[in-house]
Amino acid sequence: MSNIIELSARRAARALPPQNVAEVEMVPREMRRQLRWQQEPPQTETARNARLRDQRRVAWNAAEARTRYWSARMKLHSAIDSASRWGAFPKGALEEEHDHDGDGWMCLVRCFRSALAKQLLTPAWRSADVAWKRKALAAREHKYTDVTDEQIETAIQQDVEFLTAHPMRRNSAELEQRREFKAAMRQRIRDVAASRDLSDEELKPALTLKHHEIANFTEKHGVNLEWLLEGRGRIFQRDPIAPNMTGAELAAVVRTLPQAQQRNIEAMIDRILRERGL
């Protein structure tokens, strides 16, 4: 087996890919994805925003990959040059030993700076990309490029406006409201389960709150869907207890129910009173 290490900084500097990268060729997987999306229009605002952001994703990832590529090539060139300069390996271990290759190094530097400048001006598709631009601007990584502070600041401002106009998640108030709705709905499901002596296994599918599981639950146990979703109206579709009953009427109806259901109703009432501090 040959012990030649095939690392050549000189050859690495010469074998440079083309710099004309304005057009990013889409890989087959991305082409299939775009085609599928064209055939399936988004159904929600979040989905529409996701697709608008995704239109920026391929170009950004390509720009980021180019910057990382040239950075890695520079590090490789430096490592090979250092190993050759200081005799880190026995004579002949490197495929091509050489003195400091200034021309090759500067060629890599120019390619890296060009890629960095293009990435700084490439539209961002997520907040992390904007944070990277701000960090690069603060560190003045663009100092030796043709890109100005004003150009980068303008690009960042445009990114922020785009991402703000096309959020991927609901705001905190909406998320909290959604969590409260789900928690209340799950509690009502547990209340029904307690009144019907349902096991945890029987209850588990409904607690996922998936539409078809909720439909199965309400149909199987005769639960009033309006009550389950919003807490209004009768609990059961054929419920002898009406929401506008007086206390005396409610007590009279409860006494006609089986003992197990009476205990469950009493427990539910006690829980509600505790929650309301009564």
From TrEMBL:
Please state what the protein is called: Uncharacterized protein
